[in-house]
Amino acid sequence: MKEEISIDEFDGKKFKIRFVEEEDNRKAVITHYLHNYHNGVKKHYEKEAIEYLNQIVRYKNEEEELNYVSDVALQQLLFEVENVPFPTPENYTFKFIDLFAGIGGFRLALQNLGGKCVFTSEWDEYAKKTYRANFGETPFGDITKESTKSFIPDNFNVLCGGFPCQPFSNAGLKKGFEDTRGTLFFDVADIINRKKENGNPIDIIFLENVKGLKNHDKGKTLKTIVKTLNTLGYEVKTETLNSRNFGIPQNRERIFIVAWLKNKNKDFNFPLGINEKEEIIYKKEDLINIKTTKVRDILIKNPEEKYTISDKLYAGHIRRRKEHKEKGNGFGFSSVNENSQYTSTISARYYKDGSEILIEQKDLNPRKLTPREAANLQGYPSKYIIPVSDNQAYKQFGNSVSVPVIQAVFNEIKKQLL
Ligand SMILES: C[S@@+](CC[C@H](N)C(=O)[O-])C[C@H]1O[C@@H](n2cnc3c(N)ncnc32)[C@H](O)[C@@H]1O
Q1: Mean pLDDT, 10 residues at a time, over the chain (418 residues)?
Q2: What's the confidence (pLDDT) of residue 243?
Q3: What's the confidence (pLDDT) of residue 237?
Q4: Catalytically active residues, by annotation
Q5: Distance (Å, rounded) from C-alpha 253 to C-alpha 218?
């Protein structure tokens, strides 16, 4: 007789059929509840979580002719969500929410600095799987839905997220955040506004985006974002930072937006990292263990043969490189070796042909990065679990933030603003 109960049972086909709901938040509710079991935030998820727990216990008892009690189930599920590589720090000093969470790049960095995540949202099923394997929590789904937003608790300090960049249709910059309606930034602004209106304003907003946001729609997109945050009562600073200046051998430029409540008599400066000669661009004491790196630092020993690209693919890359060169538009593909200072940017499309980053090999065609190397290239620790296919893993790490950059910026936020 099976006596184990697991979060995965909420995915069981028969169980799902019995309780069809438009938006199934059950796994998110239960895991958020369990994760906050030892602190006050638990109350926020309690009513629904207990209801779902009783549902699954009743279902298990009927299906498997058991006589299982909810308390035992609760203990087993608690063990499951806490027994992960990156549990919540025990003595946390601030709380945050993780929006557009992907695979938790923000979460890793903020947890490392003593933060507790109290809510997370991400709608991609594969990213959710990776997230739960590492943090024990299943993110809520579509952040534009009221059924998701209603679960965001009050009283947290930081909202973070890398939202997809979209143009704003009305660039009149007159109506404040109403101008952003219909975009995902609107939902970020809406959450900030709701917390302000109900008397629990969020201290800090920490956003990341592609460098292109700066010139997107002739600069109007970024301007609208900054203006909106100002209207909501925040001071704002933005900066483009490159991962290669933060101990990562990757040329990855991203824009960072930091906003904090006005009238707090506080100011904020970004860390700028170090350059390749280990010359410090920013004050040394403000750097957290950043050292210069080379591509060799992220490579693994003896990668499987399957990562070496085929003759056909390689010939295609070489042909396209020649065509690009003739047209004078770039190199087509980018290969590096272990002594190279850095790779080009890994993007979500890396899984397609790997042309952005190929590793040269002696007497062989070049090879793609392995998923573990892609993780290393974004600063994920070796104990980070990759529970998905190679293609999904490339997409996830390509979409992710570079963890050490987030950590260096948040280290400053924490010192200067929190
Ligand atoms: C650029 S990625 C962010 C990656 C993340 N910062 C990380 O470190 O992995 C943007 C994420 O937003 C998610 N997303 C887009 N629209 C969403 C929505 N309406 N609700 C929830 N998640 C959404 C995408 O699935 C994607 O994973």
Answers
A1: 72 68 79 90 90 87 79 88 91 96 98 96 96 96 93 96 73 58 87 96 96 86 92 96 92 96 89 64 50 89 94 88 72 83 93 90 95 96 97 96 95 92
A2: 94
A3: 97
A4: 165
A5: 19
Residues touching ligand 1 (Cβ under 6 Å) are 100, 102-103, 105-106, 121-124, 127, 142-144, 162, 164, 184, 399-401
Assigned token pair, 292 = 């210069």
Number of helical (H) and strand (E) elements in the chain, helices listed first: 14, 9
Please list, in sequence order, all residues whose beta carbon lies within 8 angstroms of the beta carbon of residue 417, skipping any fewer than 6 positions away.
Answer: 203, 204, 258, 260, 264, 266, 268
How far apart (Å, rounded) are the C-alpha atoms in residues 140 and 111? 19
Which residues, in sequence order, are CB contacts of 170 under 8 Å at separation 6+?
179
> Which sequence spans correspond to the domains of the chain?
7-82, 94-288+400-416, 295-384
Q: Are 151 and 47 in contact (CB under 8 A)?
A: no
Q: What's the confidence (pLDDT) of residue 180?
A: 72
Considering only CA atoms, which residue is closest to atom 7 of ligand 1?
A: 400
**CATH top-level class of 94-288+400-416:** alpha beta
In this predicted structure, what is the pLDDT of residue 137?
94
User: Are the beta carbons of 107 and 208 closer than 8 angstroms?
Assistant: no
**DSSP for 256-302, written as a single string:** EEEEEETTS---------B-TT--BSS-GGG--S-----GGGGPPSS
Amino acid at 149: K
Which residues on neighbouring strands pair with residue 257, listed in sequence order?
Answer: 207, 238
Give the atom of ligand 1 at the shortest distance from the alpha carbon of 101: 5
Q: Same topology for domains 94-288+400-416 and 295-384, yes or no?
A: no
Beta carbons of 26 and 52 less than 8 angstroms apart: yes
Output phi, psi for 267, to 5 deg.
Answer: -135, 165
**pLDDT the model gives residue 283:** 46
User: 295-384 is classed in which CATH architecture?
Assistant: Alpha-Beta Complex (3.90)
Q: Can you read off the two tokens belonging to residue 5?
A: 């109960």
